[in-house]
Amino acid sequence: MKNLNLPKKVFIKEVGPRDGFQIEKKFVPTENKIEVIDMLSACGFADIQYTAFVHPKAIPNMADAAEVSAKIKRPAGVEFTALIPNQKGYERACGLGLKRVELTMSATDSHNLSNLNCTSLESIARLEECLKLGLETQLCAGLAVVFGCPFEGRPPYERIRMLVDRIVGLGIKDLGLADTSGVGDPKQVYDICARLVDAYPSVTFYVHVHNTHGAAVANILAAMQAGITHFDSSVAGLGGCPYAPGASGNVATEDIVQIFEYMGIETGIDIDRLIAAAKRVEEIVGHSDSATLKAGKMGHLVEGGPICQNNRQ
Amino acid sequence: MKNLNLPKKVFIKEVGPRDGFQIEKKFVPTENKIEVIDMLSACGFADIQYTAFVHPKAIPNMADAAEVSAKIKRPAGVEFTALIPNQKGYERACGLGLKRVELTMSATDSHNLSNLNCTSLESIARLEECLKLGLETQLCAGLAVVFGCPFEGRPPYERIRMLVDRIVGLGIKDLGLADTSGVGDPKQVYDICARLVDAYPSVTFYVHVHNTHGAAVANILAAMQAGITHFDSSVAGLGGCPYAPGASGNVATEDIVQIFEYMGIETGIDIDRLIAAAKRVEEIVGHSDSATLKAGKMGHLVEGGPICQNNRQ
Q1: DSSP string computed for B51-82
Q2: Smallest Cβ distance to A150: which of B144, B188, B305?
Q3: What is the pTM of this model?
Q4: Of A70, A270, B216, B304, whose CB has the highest number of CB atoms within 10 Å?
């Protein structure tokens, strides 16, 4: 092979305000959520997953979804989307005029049961119920633990294929594939994505990776080579799993934007505004998981910096 | 493309005892160095770069190179190699009976001058002087800042090619290509490695990456696809640059061993012994930069673990 067959342009959905804030143990004040979302909507994202319409007992940090929806700025060109678990969440999102929502489910029954108290196929039935309502809000789907489940390990491809087939059979055109706890490897990500892209050329697959084992960027690279051009990521690397010691957050948006731009892959994101948003997020939640926030812009080291002792190699 | 064209087997040179310990501000006690090297030599590495023969004023932590050399265990099948900057280091290493050493230099003059007080071509002249001695110890070369220099940015390929050509012209068969401050990107790493592998089919190129911007594993994946099968890495992710804020260490050996094994790429390394060594290193130096030390073995999350809130996705 003479090149990596990389795309010229990728589409990044910023999911930090949802996947990140949802797992913070302390409630993130509504005004801070709005402030961060407004900073993000000035960065050039076409899609910001800004909240989830879920039961506040399940995810207390999303209890202010309606107030956030009412108060965020809505600049032209930015679509504000949300995550939903079921028909109730769908109806709430529709009532607030959302153009698109993502119904989430898991690739394994044990994981689906632990999160949604039903099997994967029962979640697909919920998706079908939502579709039958004939509402205006477009429905997408997100499949968690595609690349590894905390309870069942790695689901067989046939299982993933069966679920994708049912979902696509309902007319869904946008489908997320999530490495929810960050246990995928690049070969596996490539193999699964390449087969799905081949099988469903009219579907847009979003790859959503966490960096638990340090393979997030490599998994994205492998997904790109399999034909994936749509990715989820979180500002400041928010997300992760507070109950799995050491489990990491989503790959940091500012990290992949920097790497992509150096690779000549267009993102449309203003990196300086994004880094400012990441710093603000870090101030608000008190932590981050971002190489960029630790090391600065890649240019900082590339274009000038102090002598490194280990430059001896 | 239908697959990533990955190798079945890779060769990992453990460089932590050299690249890691050399930049510790506090002197790492000699007995601790020996303890760690002995733990590493039981992991299955064929090559451990265990010290450097450099002026103790330049790198105080390598001042005990002779004592370490005398006291480490030397199990069959493990080669103990070292870094040298010049003829004096070469003669010291030869005097201690080393089978192989790596003479380091930089891809840019400004970097070479800052580290070795001579230009890149003057370092190549030093390499030639060493070769002329006709000693038994095999000479390899290592080229720093190939993928980005703190002073000059990214060297043009023609510059890299010219230096490699001179080095290979002297009969060198093993040549390291280092992303010394961790500023490379996967496309760049692929492009440079693919061209060099094509141009010098009889040379073994080692790729040496740091994880400053989170791209280390992706850069290794890209290098593999370019035909590279030899990599340097550091136990516990030691290394890095104490004077470049946030700059990260070498990619952690235990991280890449885990990821490679999940990819079906053989490393020959005993991951449990390696993780034990990494934990000991962390105790000794008081820090680490290792996803494995944070998150545990990949199986820990894949095969069983607590419910993650963010498994909603």
Answers
A1: EE---TTT-GGGTTHHHHHHHS---TT-EEEE
A2: B305
A3: 0.94
A4: B216
